[in-house]
Every structure is written in C-alpha cells, then in structure tokens.
Amino acid sequence: MPGYLDQYGAGEEQRNRIVFRAILAVLIVAVAGSLSWYLFRNHHQEGVVKTFLAAVKAGDYKGAYRAWGCTTDKACSGYPYEKFMGDWGATKGAPQANPDGPPDLSILGMTDSESCRNGVLLTVAVNPSRTEKLWVDKSSDAINYAPYPICPHKNPWAIMLHRTVGKLRKPFLR
Fold it and tell me: How far apart are CA 142 and CA 163, in angstroms?
C-alpha cells in the first residue's frame, strides 16, 4: 500500500526543467536583440554614406555632391563644388586637390561607425595615406566632415563597448 508522501516532488524535476528553459530562452532573445540593435542602429546613416561612396566610385561626382547634401546650382556654404572635386575627384592635379591624393577605388570604403547623440561619426578609408571622419546628421541625413575626432560626452563604458563589440560591426560596413 502506497504511503501518503510517496508521490511528493514527482513533478518538481519537470517543472524545474521548464522554468530553466524559459529563463534561458528569454536571456538568449534579450542578448541577441541587444546585439542586433547595437550592430544595426546606424544602418540608415551608413546607407547614406554608402550611396555617396558608390557615386564617387562610379565617377558620378555630381551625384556624390547631391548625396553630400549640395547641388551644383546651390552649393553648400563653405564647401563649393570645386573644393569637393579637389577632395573627392579622381584627378591628382586638380585645383585645390587634397595633398594626400585622390581616392583609391580599391580602398575607398567605411571602416568604422560610431553613434553620437545627434549624429553618426563614420570613418572612411580614402587611400592608403588618408582616412576621413564624416558626420551624418540623424535628423537631416546631411553628410559633412566630422567636427571632432571622437564623439564628445561619451562615458568610459560606451567607449569600451565601441572598441570591443563595435569591431563586430566591420563586416556590415563594406
């Protein structure tokens, strides 16, 4: 004859397995979601710069100037089309040409992306001796040269996160 406490705790092991698997699933989804958000949060601004770089690679300098946010009819203040051609044009002897030389199409591409408060700081490899820091404003998608080399007002934890986990973003930049 079975005793009163013989069945005590019989379903406990199965219940513990279900709870453990549920907690593990929630943790995996949270980590994967957080990592995906971190890797793709600058995706739109990176696309703006990729459009600009594709136009430069194709030799469509007027299209690249439009992607910069300017037109040949209405030039950007402080950055006329001639200066743009000196910086991004393919000829080395162009007037006001960049002393580091024209873009090397085999190297031209983004190498880093860092989110700041109101914009994204993107590092672009132009040629073997020249890298440029570009700034894309989050509200207007306007490209400009970065006003500072690193994002201001970042706490040390955010800097450490960018220097470690931010390296995972590199395959998505090319």
Answer: 26
| Contacts of residue 130, Cβ cutoff 8 Å, sequence gap at least 6 | 98, 100, 101
Which pLDDT band, with edges at 50, 70 and 90, does 69 fall under?
confident
Q: What is the pLDDT of residues 115-165, one digit of tens each?
A: 888 899 999 999 888 899 999 999 888 899 998 888 888 888 888 888 888
Q: What's the rounded Cα separation, in Å, for the pair 81 and 128?
A: 24
Q: What are the domain boundaries of the chain?
A: 12-41, 42-72+103-173
Listed in sequence order, the residues at least 6 apart from 174 whose beta carbon sits closer than 8 Å to its beta carbon are 109, 110
Structure tokens at 83: 């200066």
Which of the four pLDDT bands, split at 50, 70 and 90, describes residue 1?
Answer: low
Q: What Rg, from alpha-carbon coordinates, does the chain have? A: 25
CA distance 2 to 66: 85
Cα–Cα dist 56/166, whole Å: 26
Does the model's pTM come out above 0.85?
A: no
CB 109 within 8 A of CB 102: no
Q: Which amino acid is at 40?
A: F
